[in-house]
Write a structure and sequence with these properties.
mainly alpha; single chain; about 325 residues; two-stranded antiparallel ribbon
Length: about 325
């Protein structure tokens, strides 16, 4: 056990670099978005969502490059379920998440369709091939293009970001420094996490799927949790909800897209079960949003309890 102390320290260092790197990246990116007067929901769905998902991206790409592909897909699935159940659930405990009809009908529905597509492509051949990766990436580019067009349309209509939101406007040079430094920290942090998590899994006889669904998924989802909870406490529910939905879309389309484009990812039966559970949990949240167009505290508590049940299930299966 003593021999693993350096490995655990490397894992902790990796998570610190991932979280702080994502924090700096988001602050710099969101500041530039503020200067362009982009609405908060769009910022949450794009800049903040992609920034807080960079840890998952770094871990999955590093896993793909080193041949630890099972860690890549389980990390994404575990992170998405954690985002949906814990991040949204905890945010709802602080302040009811008011969900606009457009967000429910367009964004949440699209995230569910992304999970369905992942399940279909993973089922046929039990592998995400390079062509599947390119399909994900093309859809992601179309999604990003649509969100940019929506932002330009909103700005043209005079919709500005409310003052006093979480991310303040900072000088451009400082924003660029934050983005570059944050990206570097994320890259190194992802490498540290993959190497240390793989060694821990080997030592304790744990499968990389279990490590990805638990240790890596929760660790890499901490930026989403912190970002969304702070936004919810400041009553910026559009930012909180948009961050979670955008992160889940980004994780499937971009993270798994680029990972499988680099190296085909084997899909096991447990992964398909987790995809089905992700779809079911997404539908539960979608149903919750129909009740007075909000996710209240009771529903938020139910979501957290559902995740605890899921966590127990994946540990004993």
């Amino acid at each position: 056990m003593a021999a693993l102390i350096p490995t655990f320290l490397l894992l902790i260092a990796g998570f610190v670099l991932l979280i702080k790197g994502a924090d700096f990246f988001v602050e710099g990116s969101a500041s530039i978005a503020r200067k362009l007067r982009v609405p908060s929901l769009i910022v949450g769905m794009t800049i903040v969502a992609m920034g807080t998902s960079l840890p998952e991206c770094s871990v999955s790409i590093n896993a793909s490059l080193t041949g630890e592909n099972s860690l890549a897909v389980s990390n994404v699935l575990g992170s998405n379920i954690f985002n949906l159940m814990v991040v949204c659930g905890v945010c709802a405990l602080f302040a009811p998440l008011i969900v606009k009809a457009e967000t429910r009908n367009r964004d949440i529905t699209f995230s569910i369709l992304c999970a369905v597509l992942l399940g279909i492509l993973g089922f046929f051949g039990m592998e995400l091939e390079r062509m599947d990766g390119w399909i994900f990436l093309v859809i992601f580019l179309l999604f990003l293009f649509y969100m940019v067009m929506s932002a330009l349309k909103a700005r043209a209509a005079g919709q500005e970001v409310d003052e006093g939101e979480e991310y303040a406007v900072i000088p451009v040079w400082k924003s660029i420094l934050f983005i570059a430094g944050g990206a570097a920290a994320i890259a190194f942090g992802g490498d540290f996490v993959v190497k240390s998590a793989s060694k821990i899994a080997t030592t304790f006889g744990m499968s990389q799927t279990l490590v990805g669904l638990t240790i890596c998924a929760i660790g890499t989802s901490l930026p989403e949790l912190v970002t969304s909870v702070v936004a919810a406490r400041k009553k910026q529910v559009d930012m909180a909800l948009g961050n979670v939905i955008g992160s889940n879309i980004f994780n499937i389309l971009f993270v798994l897209g680029i990972s499988s484009a680099i190296s085909p990812i084997a899909v096991i039966t447990e992964n398909l079960v987790d995809v089905v559970l992700l779809i079911l949990m997404s539908l539960i949240v979608w149903i919750f949003t129909w009740t007075k167009e909000r996710v209240n505290r009771v529903e938020g508590a139910c979501m957290v309890l559902l995740y605890i049940g899921y966590w127990v299930y994946i540990c004993v299966r």
